[in-house]
Structures are given as C-alpha cells and as structure tokens.
Predict the structure of PLC-like phosphodiesterase.
Amino acid sequence: MRSSLIFSITVLLASALVTHSDAQQQQACNGYPGLCAKTYDKVSYPTTHNAYAYVPPGGVATNQNNDIPTQLKDGIRAFMLDAHEVPTGNTNDIELCHGDCKLLDSGPLSKALGQIKAFMDANPNEVITILWENTANLAPARFQTVYAAAGMVPYSYAPSKGADTAWPTLAQMISSGKRLVNFIDQGADASVPWLMAEYDFVFETPWMIEKGTAYPCTVDRPKDQRKPMYVLNHFVSGVFGGVSIPQPGIAAQTNGPDLASHINTCQSTFSQAPNFVAVDFYEKGDLLEAVAKVNGEEWNGQIATQNANRGSGSGSGSGSGSGSGSGSGGGNSAVAGAVHWSVQTLGLVSAAVVGGMGLMAL
C-alpha cells in the first residue's frame, strides 16, 4: 500500500513538472515563444512614427490612420510620441502635438497612457516601448507626475547601472512586471531613472526621407556615434515651404518592398538588425511580417485593419541610389495618379496637387 502511494505521488509530481515545462515552452513574449529567451536589445519591434498623430483623418500632419488602442491590437509594440506643453497651461499633464499644437493636437498624455495601461493590464506577456521626442524640453518630473497618475510607473523598467546594464530577456521583464521601456531624446536625468537618455542606448538613421530619394543607412542621431541599438526611420515625406508632408498614397509600397530592401541594406551596413522599425500608416504594406522575419520568426497573422487597407495606394517607379559604401538603400517609389490634398496649416496653407506627378509638396 505504501509503495503504491509513493508511486502515485511520484507520477503526479512528474506530471506537474512536465505540465510546467510545457507551459514555459508555450509562453509567448510579444506574440512569439521564440522571443522569450532573447534580451530586450536583441529584439526588433514594429514602431509607429508619431503614433498619436491619427486625427484629423487625412490631415496634413497625420502620420497614422488608427488610434493607439488599435495600433496595440494590431501588433505595434513601440510608439514615437512628442511632448508639448498643455495649451491651457495645465502643468500636471503633457500634450501630444505634431510640430505645433495649433497644427495637430491629439490631446493629453494621460489619455494615451490610460489606453496603453489598459492593454498592458489585459496582455501580461507584452513588452512595450515609448520613444519620446521632448519637443518642449520638459523636466523629467513632469513625466513622473503624469506616469504616476496613470499608474504606469510600476510598469516602467529602470536599468540599475545606466547604459552599462545588461538588458534582461523579455521573459524576465514579463516576470518582473517591468515591461514598459521609456527613452527620451533630451532632458533625462537620474531623478527619474526609468526615463532613459535615448542616445546613451540607441542611435537613429536619418528621419527626413524625401519622396524619390534613396533610403539612407547612416548614423544621424547622435551624429556619427554608434550605439548598441538603433531606430530605422522608414517614412517618406513630401516637402513644401520647409514643412514635411506624410505620403499615405504610397504607403503600401513604402512599407512593402521598399521596407524589406531598407532593412536588408541597413542590417548589412551596420552588421546588426534594427531594433525599432518606424513607419507611417503601418497597416499598409508588410511591417509586421518584415519585423517578424528580422526576429527569425514566421509571421502568419493578419492585422485587424489591414484587409481594408492592404495594397491601396501602391505604386510603381523607382528612385535614385543603391546600397553601397555610403549605406544608402534603394530609392523610394513615386506614384502616378491623382493626389488631392486640401488642408489648412495654421490657417495659412491650402493646396492641391492633381495629375501624374504625385505629392512632393503641399
């Protein structure tokens, strides 16, 4: 009887261990079990440029078609946000604006953080990154105030030794609960350790890519200084009067074949994969699939908003340049057809371009 009881307990324990092992193996980090054992700095993240700039639809300064909750649902895991003073003078919040709040004002940071927190609460195996452009040069204490009120400080990862800290794996970040990474381009200090100085950890490729020019693979910020991680800026603009104008009409081409080529060229140039692949109008083209490939994973999903947008506005043609010693990728495509914009920039600009030239300027 005693031997039988011991045998039964042994079988139960072995079964529990196997079940636990299977559960560990099946855990998915950012959607893929294969990413769990990778350290944060060895993973590539699909990123939205000016993630907040989705209103008004079709506006001159709009970089995305979908709001932040939809971006999260679709698989975006890193967000570029711009910090401005609140127009009403409220110092307990931060405003998300593009260029000037009179041009595009997407509202308070507190709202966006609430949306991100709701997603993180409901999805405990997801690691999220925010890349801050501190346009108004706000003090870190301002971010601390808004993050604390939104309940986001407990989620925020802080390196114990600054830039010298070895990054944890995604699984470790998930286990610890510290799975929100925050970088800021200027103004960081030790008083808010989770708000990390971006250029201590990350460099960026050039952000200004005019339609019809080559996609660059050079170090732009900080100038000529390589860092362990990098942002691949991959969004095309037309220019008018010094103002860059997003190009939704060619986004399927930009985020499709052009993106794959740009990633390959920069990966070869820098001998490392990009960590943050930043695009406009992410649902057009193949961003999620391209990033999965960079991570060594097979993407077989379908983002929620892609069916209605995939392939729209794609075009043909070629630009100048090729991946060579200068690190420039293939030129981005021009689109023939009718492109019409009618917008007001600070109440001063209104224009339309119709015909086969595409939109190079507003």
In short: Confidence is low (pLDDT under 50) at residues 9-14, 16-25, 307-328, 333-362. The radius of gyration is 22 Å. The chain has nine helices and 15 strands.
